[in-house]
Structures are given as structure tokens and as C-alpha cells.
Design brief:
InterPro entries: AB_hydrolase_1, AB_hydrolase_fold, AB_hydrolase_sf. This is Pimeloyl-ACP methyl ester carboxylesterase. It holds the Pfam family Abhydrolase_6. It comes from Pedobacter xixiisoli. This protein is α/β, with parallel strands linked by helices. It has one domain: 3-Layer(aba) Sandwich (Rossmann fold). It is 39% helix and 17% strand. Helix 1 crosses helix 9 and helix 4 packs across helix 5. The radius of gyration is 17 Å and the shape is globular.
């Protein structure tokens, strides 16, 4: 990515553009580069901020979706941000949900894409063959509809991560935290506008998950992305950006 990572007061983030604040939240295995297409698209209209969630920095005993939500709270207060639009993929969506339930006054609207919080079929609780490059390649390809989206660079990044013992322990702790923290009973509390942008071929958080989110969130819309897996903003960025643009126009420019 051609963006400088800013480090201030213990926070790391990318920021571009001016206007209404849009905060993009990456997933458990996600990189800032996952949001590159969205960042390029929307920095001309909005103030787009991508914080690095401290998955590898928070104390292991407190690591979970709640602690990441508290981190997001501190970050927004540090940036003096209010009435933001949160856009979250996978674990990032889950963090956005937990934060919104606790601090709805900070959030103007929420966008979820492949979000955990109800159900997910991730790595399955362990990495039994994490030393096997082919196994990890297969798992990364599982994320997408088109396996070619899993570039060698992306597979290399994931392979390096899951073969770092300290990192893999944290990933598994967070994955278990996400499974334990089911949001089904809390979603009715979220009354702000929510846009669900979902890959129709998502195998990690399948289409039924999107439908359940849509049923449980009282002010939600559901948009399908065809020929797409768990990360629409990467695999079908034009379609994803089009849905997001229309939603933001309605919410922010009305």
C-alpha cells in the first residue's frame, strides 16, 4: 500500500481524505492492504481511517473481542471522532458490533461484510498442519470464491503469521473469544442503519449468517455480492464499493 502508517500515542493507523469519518476495521488474519481499494475509492469524499487492531500487542489474558472494542473506544476518543461510520470485515465486523452495542452514541451507521458474531467456520480451532505451506495455501484459498485471489504474497503473509508461536496463540485465543461472544440476543439494541454487504459464496460466514443478521438487526439492508467469498472488498471491490457508496450517500449526504 502506498500509505504511511502513522504512529501516535501508542496507536497505529492509516488516514486519508477529509470530511465525514469512515473507520475501516480489518479481520483476524487481515492486513491494512485488505482495504486498499476502499481507501482509494473513498478518500476523495470522506475522511477514511484504518486502525491497526492490536491483536499481537494486548495482554494475552485479556485478549478478546471486548478488549478490541475497548481499544477502538480509546482510539476514537484519541482522534476526537464522533458519529463515525464503522465498516468491518470478519472479526472487524464483530468488534464493530460489540462497540456499537456499548457506545451507539459514537456510531452513525455500521457496515458489516463477512462479519463474525453469530457463526463462522474459520480454521477450526487449531492449525494442525501449520508447518505445511500447501495446507495454509488451501486454507487461504478457502476464504475466496476464486482461489486466484489468494496471491502468493497473501499466502506467504499468513504462513509466516501462523508459524510464529506467539502470534498463533493469540489468533486462536481471539478466534475462541469470537465464538463464545455470540451477539444474537444483543443485536436488537442496534437501531442505527446497518448495511450488510455479503459474498454469496462465503464459506466462512455463509449466506444464512447474513440472513440472520438481517432478521435480527432492526434497521438493516442486505446486499449480495455474486462470485464472492468472505472478503468482498478484496475479491469484488467495484461491487463492494458501489454498495458502500450508495449507503454512505443515503446516510451522510442526505
Amino acid at each position: 500500500m502506498n500509505y504511511e502508517v502513522i504512529e501516535q500515542e501508542g496507536f497505529k493507523f492509516i488516514e486519508a481524505g477529509e470530511g465525514e469519518p469512515i473507520v475501516l476495521l480489518h479481520g483476524l488474519m487481515g492486513e491494512l492492504s485488505n482495504w486498499e481499494y476502499a481507501l482509494n475509492e473513498f478518500k476523495g469524499k470522506y475522511r477514511v481511517i484504518v486502525p491497526i487492531l492490536p491483536i499481537y500487542d494486548l495482554p494475552i489474558l485479556t485478549l478478546g473481542v471486548k478488549s478490541l472494542s475497548k481499544y477502538l473506544h480509546r482510539f476514537l476518543k484519541f482522534k476526537k471522532l464522533n458519529q463515525v461510520v464503522l465498516v468491518g470485515n470478519s472479526l472487524g465486523g464483530h468488534v464493530g458490533l460489540v462497540f456499537t452495542v456499548a457506545h451507539q452514541e459514537f456510531v452513525k451507521a455500521l457496515v458489516l461484510t463477512g462479519s463474525s458474531g453469530l457463526y463462522e467456520n474459520a480454521f477450526g480451532g487449531s492449525f494442525p498442519k501449520r508447518e505445511s505451506y500447501d495446507f495454509i495455501k488451501e486454507k487461504v484459498e478457502f476464504t475466496f470464491f476464486d482461489p486466484a485471489t489468494a496471491t502468493k504474497e497473501l499466502v506467504d503473509e499468513v504462513f509466516a503469521t501462523v508459524n510464529d508461536r506467539s502470534k498463533v496463540i493469540r489468533i486462536l485465543a481471539l478466534a475462541k473469544s469470537a465464538i463464545r461472544h455470540n451477539m444474537a440476543k444483543e443485536l436488537k439494541k442496534i437501531t442505527i442503519p446497518v448495511s450488510l454487504i455479503w459474498g454469496r459464496q462465503d464459506k466462512i460466514t455463509p449466506p444464512d449468517v447474513a440472513k440472520e443478521f438481517h432478521e435480527l438487526l432492526p434497521n438493516s439492508e442486505l446486499n449480495w455480492v455474486d462470485n464472492c467469498g468472505h472478503a468482498p472488498m478484496m475479491e469484488q471491490p467495484e461491487v463492494f464499493n458501489n454498495y458502500l457508496d450508495k449507503f454512505l450517500d443515503r446516510i451522510l449526504l442526505k
